[in-house]
Design brief:
There is one protein chain. This protein is an all-alpha fold. The protein has six helices and no strands. The chain starts with 21 loop residues before the first helix and ends with a helix.
């Protein structure tokens, strides 16, 4: 028999994202964070594709994500559940490493991506936007 495959963008496709492996959350969160960054850059920084890419890289690099995450942690921005997700991801053993970041920066960035993945899979778009806008305010302050 043919299996009926459905995908809902605005409805949950997973029953309990908070119980998923932390690196799985970071896997999807990396993409969500990246696409939000690309859309932000396209809207606010006109230029050639190469210039857009360079600008996006200053937001999505592990070093930048780590800096944003440190600020988020220092200002107690995460909810209790988000902090649990972050800590699980940060403490997860991972055999890969970012090219231009320290191990600690990579762990912080992975934690941030896991939070984004969790929020996306929970379809908590309002909180996802809130988190991303907080990061963009930090980014703009540095420019």
């Amino acid at each position: 028999m043919e299996k009926n495959i459905t995908f809902k963008f605005t409805e949950k496709n997973f029953a309990n994202p908070n119980q998923m492996q932390a690196l799985t959350l970071a896997y999807i969160g990396d993409s969500i964070y990246d696409i939000m960054s690309r859309e932000y850059v396209m809207k606010n920084h006109l230029g050639k594709i190469n210039d857009l890419h360079k600008t996006v890289s200053t937001i999505v690099s592990a070093r930048a994500q780590a800096s944003f995450m440190e600020n988020i942690l220092n200002n107690n921005i995460l909810t209790e559940q988000e902090e649990k997700i972050y800590n699980r991801a940060k403490n997860q053993k991972n055999n890969s490493k970012a090219k231009n970041a320290s191990i600690m920066e990579y762990k912080l960035a992975t934690g941030l991506e896991a939070v984004f993945g969790y929020l996306y899979l929970e379809k908590n778009f309002e909180r996802l936007e809130e988190m991303f806008n907080y990061i963009i305010r930090l980014y703009e302050e540095k420019q």
